[in-house]
Structure formats: structure tokens, C-alpha cells
Design brief:
heterodimer, A: alpha/beta, Rossmann fold, Coagulation Factor XIII, Chain A, domain 1, 3 domains, 18 strands, globular, B: 313 residues, mainly alpha, two-stranded antiparallel sheet, 2 strands
Chain lengths: 421, 313
């Protein structure tokens, strides 16, 4: 069948040095004055400097989407997902490549696009609708439907600044949901709002998909991707890393960057590093009591996260790590930012930070760790999904039974008794 | 980069809008089924290409967004005097107070001539289009930065934003124009057919305000200096325009310099239309020609900078 979206060798380059919010003429004069010094310095280490000036957020990405397909796009932070959406929705122009879109495109990159705080719900429906590409007659025709979907009938003539955040989000999504494009581009807007509303959004998107429309859905929420998408592509470092049925691609996503069996990962050139950060962390190791790294830790056993770093100057390191499920949902965070146990240590340019968790209370399954390294002033090296690990079952309950993973990732010990008075 | 552009220039398909399925020769039932799935036959195929050469405005796209222009202008009007105690009264008070100050300073103390009209209405008839121009340019130049949240989240032709700001100012103009007619009535001025020239003259002024506004708004995205420099520039511009003084006040040999300022011709003509005097058609013609030139220059400049808006705003 003729594809409705065809992307060929798409590329987007950003000049990192020019990504500050704005420049003034004074900055330009200063920069022009310093240019000769910079040029001299560049002669010294030519290759390094060149590499940091340009950054390809997307490079040589090609794929096709058939009409009626719901394509999931996954990838780590900085993999180029948002850039891809921005190019497809014509917010920014690509540097290279070509895209064909055969149909009206609607994009849902945030909820409540164009809302003005001072205007009423009614006025904002018209404003936001027009901004998203609806004609006035079309908005009038769909007005009642939008109000009903948002469940805000009584507040339709109240300025949206008096809305609760839930009402605001509902109204914003309601307008976007009635856009009726042939191609719908959706960013992770489903992350907002309460559970009931998320369900409603997912339901509406499923309806849109079943109605034969084409949806491109970018998300970290693997459960949503699994529920909605017929196909999935994975971006990594701005390139297309995998494409196929959602289960296969998601398995690949979980596996990549994480090495569950070894319990150690080299971080010097890790794909999950946030662009623009100063690479400082060199290695991460997970241990469970003994001297050798281990990627499989039993429920209730100790876990050590050992992160080695090398900095250009001595510093008092602050390490944070977020433990996430394989679907990307954070379970807990351990960070010395909040404990300051290392605040008094001697500054070191090179060391290994050890974070020890006495009892790892996670339901068996695969997990992933984000690492944040910085000092008292802030974080300067962040690696998403730096390493993965597996939690093995253990008989903490004494019955051999454990709660299933779909009821939560944390195992909590409790004691039971009955009050029969 | 250069090689790529070259390759694209040679490719047969460089137009952005093409009729549906123009790229694909229909091949039996499958193709037509795809066509119907795509929807109404007027749904165009959109081609986005990287590194392509600069092209002019897509007027069809602009026309398709005319409702957006209306709603954005309507929003600006609606929101401007929200949470002010005096509300719309400001629209009338601003030019009235300026007129009072100028009448005392220039009309009474400095004894600036006024072409035989009473000085208050003489200066008001000049201030009216100027206040509009001043306000339209100021709001338009801050409009892209002020709507950064829209620019980074949704596509529409960016020109709509400064254009809406320029249109919104016309509402204020209409309100304060009614004050001028009250004054004209008070001074016993005749209401002639020349008043019919006011709408086309204001359209011309709006077009010129759009030129300056869109150019400044695009510059403002990259250089926030515009916000600080523009008020001074506009103030100097006002004194270089025959608003508080008549054109005759300027020595003959310097008048050609004043004619280079399109606003000079527009405001002269506006005044002539209000007072029912002969219009200096050559001055107005020059203003039209210069507006056309500025429009092309500003349009080109805007298109060039437009591609970066979402990345740097």
C-alpha cells in the first residue's frame, strides 16, 4: 500500500554553541573580539573542537508509515524523538533529507497549546482550535462535542486561570482530540493528568487509530506503546536503531545500554548520555555483598552501586541514581543530594563512589538505573539507562509466593493480625 | 551541505504543495483505495525537504490560516486591557493627553504653525495614524518572542503572528478616530467626501507597519536588543515625520529628505483627507512605492530568519 508518511535520509543539525536562548549585539562584539584567540586554540586540538560545535540530533533516518498504522517511537532522552516530531509537524526545518506527508497533519506536542490564561474556556476553544489548524466553522460544529468530552460544562464561561489543573488538561486534550487529521503526531502528553483521564486519552487515541487514521506516538510509557501501537521504531543517538513489531523493538530497547548479566558497564562512551554534558563518569558496577560485579541480585539482598569518575579538577562528588522498571517508570531514587553524607569528604579528581542499599526490596524482574553526577553546584553528567539489572526471586515470605509485577514494583514487608472485638 | 542542496535542486519535485498522489502514478485498485483513505481530494501532499533554497511566502498556506489571523488579533484586543481599572478608556486617553501636551508645548509656547487649522485638531489628526503605527510596530516586534510557546509547539505560517498584532491595533484606531470626529464637529469642520480616503490610507499605513513590524519581530527573536532600541528609534522617527509641525515648516531644500519617509506622505494625505484639502498625490505615490519596496525586503528577511525561529526563540 502507498505509505502515508515517507521519511528519507532525514537529518537535523544543531550548532551547540549557538543554542543559548538569545544573543545580544554586545555578546557578538565580545565574541568577535575573541575570535582570533579561539581560532588559534582550535589549531591546537582541531578534531575535538569541531566535534562539539555541531550536533546531529537526527542523522540519516528513513522509514515509512502505512495509512491506518499506529507507529510507536521509542528511544532514550536525546535520541532524537522530539526532534523527529518537530520536523514532521513543521515546527522546525530539517537540515537534510526529505519527508512526504499525504494528508492533513495534526500534532499534539503539549496539552492546551495556545491557551490564554485570561480568556474563558469558550474563547480558548476557538483560539486553540484555530492555532492547531481548525477553521472557524469546524470549531463551531464540534463545539458541543468538545465541551462534553472535557466535562467542564459549568465552567465554560470562566477564565481558564481559575481552572483546576485537571480541568485545564481535559479541555486542552478535548480540543486536540477533535482535530480529525489524517495523521496525528502525539508526544508524551499522556504523562499528565490523573489516571482516569489518561485512560480516556488512551481510549480516544485507540478510537482514532481504529478509525483508520495514522498515528505516530512518541512515548516512554511502554505499556501505552504496547497497548496502542501496531509497529514500533527505536531511535538511538539520532539514528534508526530498530524497527518492527512493538514487543521485539521494546525488548531490544530494554536490552540496549544495559547489560543485565555482567553487572558492570563502561560509561566513557555511553549512548544514554545527555547531549552537552561533560563526560565524567567512567564506569559503573553493581555488587551484591561479594567482591565481583553481579547483574542479578536477589530480592532482600544488599546492592552496591559503584560509580567511578574522572574529573578535570578535584571535587566533592554528589551521586544520584534513579531505579526504574523496564517500562521506564521510576521506582525510587537514592541520591546523596538529599543525604549529604559525602559533603565533608576531601575533594578528589578521580575516585569511586559507593552507594549501598542494605535490602533491595524489588519485585523480581528487570530494572534499569539512571545516574546523575555533579557537585554542590549542580549536575554535570547524566546518563539515562546507564545499566540494567535483574532482581531474582527469594523466599522472603516463607511461602514461596510473591505478588505479581503488575501490582507494583516494590515488595513491602508487613505483619498481619486480626482484631475480632 | 552544498552537495546536498545541489542534488535537491536537480530533483524533479521541489514544490511544497502538489495535488494528491501526483508523485505516484495510479496503479489499479490499490492506489485508488489509498487515495480514498487519505480523505477529501483537496488534501494536499506535503513535501518537506532539508537544506532547500529560500522561497517566497506560500500565499495559499497564508490564506488557509486567515481564521487564525482573526482569532489571534481578537485575542490581542480582548486581552490588552484585561485587569486594568480604566479599560478601553486608555485607548482614548493616550492620544488625548499627548494632544494636550503637544498643544501647550508646540502650539502655544513654541508657536508652531498648523496650516491654518486649530492646533489641537491639527496635531490630533497627525497623532492618530502615528499612534496606530507606533503601537502596531511595538506590539508586532515583541509578538514572536511573546508567542514563543506557540512557535515551538505548533506549525502555522509565522507571519500570522506579527500580522495579527498589526490588525489588532486597528480596533484602537477606530475608537480614537471617533474622538477626532467629535473634535471636528466641535470646531465646525465640514465633513466631505474626502473622508472616504481614510480607510484605504489606514490600510496603507497598516501595510507599512507590517513591514517594519515583521522585520523587527524577526530580528528580535535573535537579538533582544530590538526591545530596547525600538522605542528610541520610534521617538526619533516621530519627530522626523510632520506630525507636530506642517510640511511647510521645513525649508524647501530639505523637504525631499522628509519625502523619503513613507509615513510623511501617509500622514500628510491623512490630514488632507480629514480637513478636505487637496491631496499631494506625488508624495502619496512615493509612499506607496516605498512601502512596496520595504514589503519585499522585509518579507525576504522574515522568510530567511523564519526557519530558525523555533530553534532559537
Amino acid at each position: 500500500m502507498q505509505p502515508i508518511i515517507r521519511v528519507e535520509k532525514l537529518g537535523k543539525r544543531y550548532a551547540i554553541g549557538r543554542r543559548e536562548n538569545f544573543v545580544t549585539i554586545r555578546d557578538m562584539v565580545a565574541s568577535a573580539a575573541l575570535a582570533p584567540i579561539r581560532a588559534l586554540r582550535r589549531l591546537g586540538n582541531r578534531s575535538e573542537d569541531r566535534g562539539t560545535e555541531n550536533f546531529w540530533a537526527l542523522k540519516n533516518v528513513s522509514f515509512e508509515v502505512a495509512p491506518g498504522e499506529v507507529l510507536g517511537v521509542i528511544g532514550r532522552n536525546g535520541a532524537g524523538k522530539s526532534t523527529l516530531l518537530k520536523i514532521l509537524s513543521r515546527i522546525t526545518e530539517p537540515t537534510a533529507g526529505r519527508i512526504e506527508l499525504h494528508g492533513r497533519v495534526g500534532s499534539l506536542l503539549e496539552v492546551g497549546t495556545g491557551f490564554h490564561q485570561e480568556l474563558t474556556g469558550r474563547e480558548n476553544i476557538f483560539l486553540s482550535g484555530a492555532i492547531m489548524g481548525m477553521r472557524r466553522a469546524e470549531i463551531i460544529r464540534k463545539f458541543d462535542e468538545i465541551v462534553a468530552f472535557a466535562e467542564i460544562d459549568d465552567f465554560i464561561d470562566t477564565p481558564v486561570k481559575r481552572y483546576s489543573s485537571g480541568m485545564y488538561v481535559r479541555l486542552g486534550f478535548a480540543v486536540a482530540a477533535h482535530l480529525d487529521p489524517e495523521i496525528l503526531l502525539v508526544d508524551e502528553v499522556l504523562a499528565v493528568g490523573d489516571i482516569a483521564f489518561q485512560k480516556k486519552c488512551l481510549g480516544k487515541m485507540g478510537e482514532v487509530a481504529r478509525g483508520g487514521r495514522t498515528v505516530l506516538f512518541v512515548s516512554h510509557n511502554m505499556a501505552a506503546i504496547e497497548a496502542l501501537c501496531t509497529r514500533c521504531v527505536m531511535l538511538s543517538g539520532g539514528a534508526l536503531a530498530a524497527s518492527g513489531d512493538p514487543m521485539t523493538v521494546m525488548a531490544r530497547y530494554v536490552a540496549e545500554g544495559a547489560a543485565p548479566d555482567t553487572g558492570a558497564a563502561d560509561l566513557a562512551a555511553h549512548p544514554g548520555r545527555r547531549p552537552g554534558d561533560t563526560p565524567t563518569m567512567t564506569r559503573v558496577e553493581l555488587r551484591s555483598g561479594d567482591e565481583k560485579p553481579s547483574g542479578a541480585i536477589r530480592l532482600g539482598d544488599p546492592m552496591e552501586i559503584r560509580v567511578s569518575y574522572r574529573a578535570t579538577r578535584p571535587l566533592r562528588p554528589v551521586l544520584g541514581s534513579v531505579i526504574k522498571t523496564s517500562y521506564g517508570a521510576p521506582v525510587f531514587c537514592v541520591s546523596d543530594r538529599f543525604c549529604s553524607q559525602l559533603a565533608e569528604c576531601a575533594p578528589l579528581a578521580e575516585a569511586t563512589i559507593i552507594c549501598r542499599i542494605e535490602r533491595l526490596m524489588l519485585i523480581p524482574g528487570t530494572y534499569s538505573i539512571d545516574l546523575w553526577l555533579g557537585d554542590a553546584t549542580g549536575d554535570f553528567d547524566v546518563i539515562f539507562d546507564a545499566i540494567g539489572f535483574e532482581v531474582l526471586p527469594s523466599d522472603l515470605t516463607g511461602t514461596g509466593r510473591l505478588p505479581p509485577p503488575n501490582l507494583g514494583a516494590v515488595f513491602c514487608e508487613a505483619s498481619w493480625s486480626i482484631d475480632d472485638r | 551541505m552544498k552537495a546536498l542542496r545541489h542534488e535537491i535542486m536537480e530533483s524533479p519535485m521541489t514544490t511544497e504543495e502538489a495535488p494528491p498522489n501526483a508523485e505516484t502514478p495510479p496503479c489499479g485498485a490499490a492506489a485508488s483505495a489509498a487515495g480514498s483513505a487519505i480523505g477529501a481530494p483537496r488534501v494536499p501532499t506535503l513535501v518537506i525537504e532539508g537544506g532547500k533554497a529560500l522561497r517566497g511566502f506560500d500565499f495559499r498556506d497564508l490564506w488557509a490560516h486567515r481564521d487564525l489571523l482573526y482569532f489571534l488579533a481578537w485575542r490581542d484586543v480582548k486581552v490588552r486591557y484585561k485587569q486594568t481599572a480604566m479599560g478601553v478608556a486608555w485607548v482614548i486617553l493616550q492620544p488625548l493627553l499627548t494632544m494636550a501636551i503637544f498643544t501647550v508645548l508646540f502650539g502655544r509656547l513654541a508657536k508652531v504653525p498648523s496650516d491654518g487649522e486649530p492646533y489641537p485638531i491639527f496635531v490630533f489628526a497627525g497623532l492618530l495614524p502615528w499612534t496606530y503605527f507606533n503601537q502596531a510596530v511595538t506590539t508586532a516586534s515583541n509578538s514572536l518572542v511573546g508567542n514563543a510557546a506557540l512557535i515551538t509547539k505548533v506549525y502555522f505560517p509565522r507571519l500570522v503572528i506579527p500580522a495579527a498584532a498589526v490588525c489588532a491595533g486597528l480596533v484602537d484606531f477606530a475608537i480614537s478616530a471617533s474622538i477626532m470626529f467629535l473634535m471636528a464637529f466641535h470646531y465646525g469642520m465640514p465633513f466631505g467626501a474626502s473622508l472616504l480616503l481614510i480607510p484605504p490610507l489606514m490600510a496603507l499605513t497598516a501595510l507599512f507597519a507590517l513591514c517594519v513590524g515583521m522585520w523587527m519581530s524577526a530580528l528580535n527573536v535573535k537579538y533582544r536588543d530590538v526591545r530596547y532600541a525600538l522605542p528610541f528609534l520610534l521617538q526619533i522617527w516621530m519627530y522626523l515625520t510632520p506630525i507636530i509641525y506642517p510640511l511647510k515648516f521645513i525649508p524647501e531644500r530639505w523637504r525631499w529628505l522628509l519625502a523619503l519617509n513613507p509615513l510623511s506622505g501617509m500622514i500628510q494625505a491623512f490630514r488632507a483627507a480629514v480637513f478636505g484639502r487637496a491631496i499631494d498625490w506625488s508624495g502619496l505615490g512615493l509612499a506607496c512605492a516605498m512601502t512596496a519596496v520595504f514589503l519585499i525586503a522585509a518579507g525576504w528577511s522574515f522568510r530567511r530568519m523564519e526557519r530558525q525561529f523555533a530553534d532559537i526563540v
